[in-house]
Amino acid sequence: MRLSLGTAQFGLAYGITNQAGQVPAQTVKGILETAADKGIGHIDTAAAYGSAETVLAGQLGAFEVTSKIPSLEGLTPEAARAKVASSIEESKVKLGPGLTTILFHSAADLLRPDWQSLWETAAAQGLPKLGVSVYTGDEVSAILGRVTPDVVQLPLNLLDQRLLDDGTLSQLKGLGCEVEARSVFLQGVLLSAPAALPSAVQTLAPHITAIRSAAASAEASVLDLCLSFLKLTGFVDRAVVGVTTVDELIAIHESWQRPIPAVPYQNFRVSEPHLVDPRLWRDTRQQNLKLAS
Asked: Most exposed among 106, 241, 260, 271, judged by the fewest C-beta atoms under 10 Å?
């Protein structure tokens, strides 16, 4: 299992706990240099992440890159096919030869009646890997009834263990799919002090308190628990981590290398989707950024 550098914050003021806004270009440069120095060789981005692809252009060196086709909702079949082709071509131009993987950013696009022509159009662009970003096990089941993606990106964290519990992760690995875990810090919520949580997620405060208590008892950090949980699943090929500073990236890399603390990770799970799915959080700013998830 490897780390992947998420880049939503490079092109947007992304994240419900993000108080600093979009990461400045000079800071992005330092983050990329640090990632390369620490051996983090993969970057995750998307056309829907504002100016992220443009910010990354010319700075990628030897990084391997995943990007995403923006939502095709509301487009006719002809317009959707054209959008798939043009989006991938634009990403190729901006991201260069390191671009190896393209995902459909919206699982709904592979559930359209014309899904096959969209998939074939994307495949015809000649990139090594093609996949999809999902939110739910139902989406995965429906897509697997049509095609087996090379890569599936999905939410997975201490609180949101739904796709582990329902067998989705096991199924994907059994089919040979690469699994990329995103939302591993739940937009920073897992790393926040309970009293500092935004109102939209304040109901998670008791859960965050329990995680902090378990970390303290194990003489570990919450960051250690977040990353160790992913390792313990045995199903994750890459963990996508978003940062806003070089120091945050260094802390993540150091935590990644520490031993796994012995804590009851399964006890942290939250089953209510409205608590762990950012699309359902009642926060206007977050709703405006939901397509970047």
From this structure: 271
